[in-house]
Amino acid sequence: MELLNQVTQFVISGLATGSIYALIGLSFAIIFNSTGIINFAQGEFVMLGGVLTIFSLNVLHLPLLAAILVAVAVTTVIGLVFERLAIRPLKNATPLMLIIITIGASILIRGLVMLLWGKDTQALPAFSGTDPISVAGATLLPQHLWIFGVTVLVIIGCRLFFNHTISGKAMRACSFNRRAANLVGISVGRMVLFSFVISAAVGALAGVIIAPLTMTAYDVGVMLGLKGFCAAIMGGMGSGLGTVLGGLILGTLESLGAGLISSGYKDAIAFFILLLILFIRPQGLFKKGETERV
Amino acid sequence: MKSDRIKFLVFALVVLLMPLPLSGGYLTNVLIFVGINSVLALGLNLLLGYAGQISLGQAAFFGLGAYGSGVLTTAYGLNPWLAMIAVAVCVALFAFAIGFPVLRLKGHYLAMATLGVGVIVNIAFNETVDLTGGPSGLSGIPNLSIGSLTFDSDLKNYYLVWVFALGMILLSLNLVNSRFGRGLRAIHDSEVAARVMGVNARLMKVQVFTLSAFMSAIMGSLYCHVMTFISPNSFGFHFSVELLTMIVIGGLGSVYGSILGALLLTMLPEMLRTFQDYDIIVYGLLLITMTIYLPGGLVEGIPALFRRLVPAKKVTEGSDA
């Protein structure tokens, strides 16, 4: 019974962090689908969400909701500027160049945040208290509920946007075939910009809701970004349910592994899963394989 | 070919005479690390610049070399030279084994996979406290020695490191001008086309990956004996990115570019001591601007600038006369 309770507890916290991975995975997929770029600076958007909220709250003394809005808005603008300054000037960029540029942007953002706000780890207060709620012998924090709620809302929002609005459909058209999309009058450049904006916003939001649980600092982006990428890979780089499932599976496995085997190797577990997926099923867990096109 | 050999001889002569005016001072010490970083950058450049395969886990191989030698010589009292060879062979075998599944991946996926390998290895350095001393590091590593000659001063270590480095630079120069090197460049341009022409792309990618791991491991061993202290921080993701920055600045697909990049990026933080932790801002800016405006790196940029200036001079001379 003792063990069962423990396992329930690990699964609950795993699902919560898994939701975050799912959101980050989603933000990877949004950019990937309209541009074919894996943005190595994605984790920095997540970090910015948390760090900027804390800054708005503690230094600007804004109320929590306003602080969150400011943080997400500023991160979105940074995503926009990043696309304009670093991605758009490149014509006919190779994947290699894009990898190098996004890595450059990632360490640049990290360095600037360190310069502006120092290296301290900071915590964001939980949105609605820390009184635990008892569920099936395990405890659930109010913040967990916030995470599940926001994740579900964002996923529904993305689904509606991509399936039922003109802009969303246009972005999907770009992901299927950029040239054809261009021919029917879609401005591909603008869609690429949109994808960076939406992706930065989703990433920042993920960073905001996880900050009360895990604390945040200038260097949390690398790990969060990589795990979000892992979730996206598991879901086959789609922006749908596959990525969400991938994130939840990753979060749960990681939490169980950390709790039952060794907490020091928590991050290693995630990367081990990442490597396994890349080696065995690089097309994702839930998709059929595609043949390489020349 | 002959001019290549002369170029290398001049370079080697400069390297070997360099310490004389410095007389074993602080700069000699910095140049030891330039030597180590040159080879590490060169290993990555063979992989990335020539074969077009990115690796963000190079620091792992460097670290495995350093920790392998460090642990074997302190805890097990093995002869350092023997340890160096054994560790380098083991690291090369490890790279060869993981090379097949890893290098089947391309582009972004390859970058992520190598990054994953790097992070896992770094976590292992931190967590296997009994063996590696964990985050607080491993100390008391002996200096290397040949007979009664112990490499315990900067000057001696300079020659130790640079003799190894020159050997590997020569090897790389020969390699890139061989059938193998041409094969690598063919893979870079189009893997499918290369395979159609009879290049065994899959094997060659793994071979060059293994070679770069081997070179990194040897440098790791030298590093641990020069420093006599190592800690996991020196072998993390940050260092892999630093190596990447070196070859992007120096020049992708250029042996001397790797050395130039290593020289600049090793000297720069030393000169700008105040920057310390903020060097990543400079690296970030350099990676972005170089890739956008000077994708060939400085080895292409400087001659291009020179060519642009020289004809301009001739015109003015002509107008004078």
UniProtKB/TrEMBL annotation, chain A:
Listed GO CC annotations: plasma membrane
InterPro entries, per the entry: ABC_transp_permease (IPR001851), BCAA_transport_permease (IPR052157)
Residues passing through the membrane, by range: 12-32, 39-57, 63-82, 94-117, 144-162, 183-211, 231-256, 268-286
UniProt record, GO biological process: amino acid transport
UniProt keyword list: Amino-acid transport, Cell membrane, Membrane, Transmembrane, Transmembrane helix, Transport
Gene Ontology MF, one: transmembrane transporter activity
Topology of the protein relative to the lipid bilayer: Multi-pass membrane protein
Coiled-coil region: none
Subcellular localization: Cell membrane
Protein family: Belongs to the binding-protein-dependent transport system permease family. LivHM subfamily.
Name of protein: Branched-chain amino acid ABC transporter permease
UniProtKB/TrEMBL annotation, chain B:
Compartment(s) of residence: Cell membrane
PANTHER family linked to this entry: BRANCHED AMINO ACID TRANSPORT SYSTEM PERMEASE (PTHR30482:SF18), HIGH-AFFINITY BRANCHED-CHAIN AMINO ACID TRANSPORT SYSTEM PERMEASE (PTHR30482)
One Pfam assignment: BPD_transp_2
Recorded topology in the membrane: Multi-pass membrane protein
GO cellular component: plasma membrane
Transmembrane segments: 33-52, 59-76, 82-102, 109-125, 158-176, 208-231, 243-268, 280-299
Molecular functions (GO terms): branched-chain amino acid transmembrane transporter activity
Stated name of the protein: Branched-chain amino acid ABC transporter permease
Major localization listed first in the record, in broad terms: membrane
Signal sequence residues: none
Keywords: Cell membrane, Membrane, Transmembrane, Transmembrane helix
InterPro entries given in the database record: ABC_transp_permease, LivM-like
Presence of keyword Kinase: no
Superkingdom of origin organism: Bacteria
Coiled coil regions in record: none
Chain's gene name: livM
